[in-house]
Amino acid sequence: MNQGSTILYQKKILITAGPTREAIDPVRYISNHSSGKMGYALAQEFLSRGAQVVLVTGPVCIELHHEHLKIIRVQSANEMYIDCCRYFEETDVAVFAAAVADYRPEAAALQKIKKNDESFMIKMVKNVDIAFEFGQIKQPHQVSVGFALETNDEEKHALSKLKKKNFDIVVLNSMNDAQAGFGFDTNKISIIQDDLSVTEFPLKSKKEVAVDIVDAAAKRLLKKQQLLTR
What we know:
Rossmann fold; two-stranded antiparallel ribbon; 230 residues; 14 strands
């Protein structure tokens, strides 16, 4: 095997996956349609290359088992951030694949809210931006991969995320592409590197998409290691 194929052996990988749930009251929450399939496919691909993976996952209906996999199950964005904080410093590659809620109710009701009124309002406050926070402390040897699921001006928004969150790679997919995005077993992506190069891929299974993303992350990690050892 060449160096590019073995670069991930025993490397430490941190992946976020699935949705988060932000409580309204003890029985209701705000969430999204993320299935976690992409994040879990990425975990499986990194594991197949000999990496050690920590998977911080929101609520999903997927099982994955491996001797080099540690799964941490969370509900809220804040819980996901706190658990990621425990592992990020020692991480070689971080992949932020979770669909984290941007906002949460300012205060969750302690009891179930009754439908007494014709309407009621929930005051929302901004959640921690997990990828942004880790982008501020990312070290030169670390590779950071983010996702941009967009509905309009896709590449513009993806490039904005690349810069703002200090990603090495952004994986862009559009809600306008058939059979791509939440819930599907397929995805259609473009990979945007921090040198602004863009590689477009056809519709593939999420397992095949994971190979493309992990290939890109491995090449970026190898390049960083070569630069740091010169």
